[in-house]
Sequence to fold (135 residues):
Amino acid sequence: RVPQGPVCTNLGLKPGQRLTVKGKIAPNAKSFVMNLGKDATLLGLHFNPRFDAHGDVNTIVCNSKKVEEWGAEHRETVFPFQKGGTAEITFGVNQNDVTVYLPGHQFTFPNRLNLSVIDYFDTQGDFTLQSFSWE
Fold:
């Protein structure tokens, strides 16, 4: 069972706002997850850096989930994370997508569920949340 971190609801993030997450990656990390969406069943962005999990090595896998139905996986091969290191990730909410800002790299993921607001955020896996802010 994947360890569950904090869960945030009623965030009310609208297009033009950003969510910045900082934390520590476990020294023996296999993967961790950050989910953004309407609630736990409607995830606009499932952000899953994999050090070594599900056949992926040093790859970021992103997806969306509508109830039990996953979308098509999107893979980013730029992998700025280190086991035992710290991570700072900013999610910029836009009308049609989410921009993910990583150290030295950024990419966008489409708003497949047409969510007008991001209310839900959680973390899971080999990551300890240290701070969480939005603007």
User: Anything to note?
Assistant: The chain has a mean pLDDT of 96.
